[in-house]
């Protein structure tokens, strides 16, 4: 590099540094526009950080024995499908949103069309028969089959991956369950 060019670059860098030193304290007293997010704990499974990044406010519910059994069934089906912890997190968060991890049968007038089971899958949309989609292993496997078809699902926000499979009228609602889903996977994956 020639000497003139080198001196010019160093001079500009020096000005930038000096300006930063003098303007820094002044800028620090300007209007504070920093947003403070609520601290979020993360679950670590092996060397994997789960979740990849929680979006928005998080919801949490206390689980009863049936719901915990369904968490374990989702994890077992995920392992059986040869998928990892992230797939289990996406699946559990989806089931938390769709059914609060309750294996729902037909709810009469309160039913969303013919949606049933943990994932509120619909026989009329080709997810399987009522008997199949109310079987936690079958419904999880069907969800995971759809998830596998989403290109890059492992690295996208959970809510986008879940929405691509579920095609919900409320596409952003899955995000609120990511932290609890990650905590449940961390708790039950190796049991």
Topology:
Layout lengths: L2 H26 L14 E3 L2 E3 L14 H16 L4 H15 L30 H4 L2 H13 L9 H9 L11 H11 L3
Helix pairs in contact: 2-3, 2-5, 3-6, 3-7
Structure, described:
- By secondary structure, the chain is mainly α.
- Helix content is 49%, strand content 3%.
- It has 7 helices and 2 strands; from the N terminus they run H-E-E-H-H-H-H-H-H.
- The chain has helices at 3-28, 65-80, 85-99, 130-133, 136-148, 158-166, 178-188, and strands spanning 43-45, 48-50.
- It has a two-stranded antiparallel sheet.
- Strand 1 and strand 2 form a beta hairpin.
- Helix 2 (65-80) runs antiparallel to helix 3 (85-99), helix 2 (65-80) packs across helix 5 and helix 3 (85-99) packs across helix 7.
- The protein is globular, with a radius of gyration of 24 Å.
- The model is unreliable at 1-43 (pLDDT under 50).
Write a brief structural summary.
By secondary structure, this protein is mostly helical. Helix content is 49%, strand content 3%.
What oligomeric state best describes the polypeptide chains here? single chain
Between the first and last Cα atoms, what is the distance in angstroms?
A: 61 Å
Percentage of residues in helical conformation: 40-55%
Q: Could you describe the largest sheet, including whether it forms a barrel?
A: 2 strands, antiparallel
Mean pLDDT: 77
Instruction: Tell me the strand order in the biggest sheet.
Output: 1-2
Strand content: under 5%
Task: Give the SSE order as H and E letters.
Answer: HEEHHHHHH
Uncertain residue ranges:
1-43
In angstroms, what is the radius of gyration?
24 Å
């Amino acid at each position: 590099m020639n000497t003139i060019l080198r001196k010019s670059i160093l001079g500009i860098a020096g000005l930038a540094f000096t300006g930063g030193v003098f303007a820094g304290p002044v800028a620090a007293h300007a209007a504070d526009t920093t947003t403070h997010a609520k601290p979020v704990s993360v679950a670590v499974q092996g060397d994997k950080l789960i979740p990849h990044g929680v979006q928005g406010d998080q919801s949490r519910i206390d689980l009863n024995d049936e719901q915990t059994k369904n968490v374990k069934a989702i994890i077992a089906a995920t392992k059986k499908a040869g998928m990892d912890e992230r797939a289990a997190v996406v699946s559990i968060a989806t089931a938390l949103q769709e059914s609060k991890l309750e294996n729902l049968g037909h709810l009469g007038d309160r039913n969303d069309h013919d949606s049933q089971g943990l994932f509120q899958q619909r026989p009329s949309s080709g997810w399987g028969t009522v008997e199949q989609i109310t079987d936690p292993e079958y419904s999880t496997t069907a969800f995971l089959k759809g998830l596998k078809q989403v290109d890059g699902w492992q690295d996208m926000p959970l809510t986008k991956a879940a929405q691509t499979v579920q095609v919900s009228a409320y596409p952003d609602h899955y995000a609120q369950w990511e932290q609890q889903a990650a905590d449940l996977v961390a708790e039950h994956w190796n049991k």
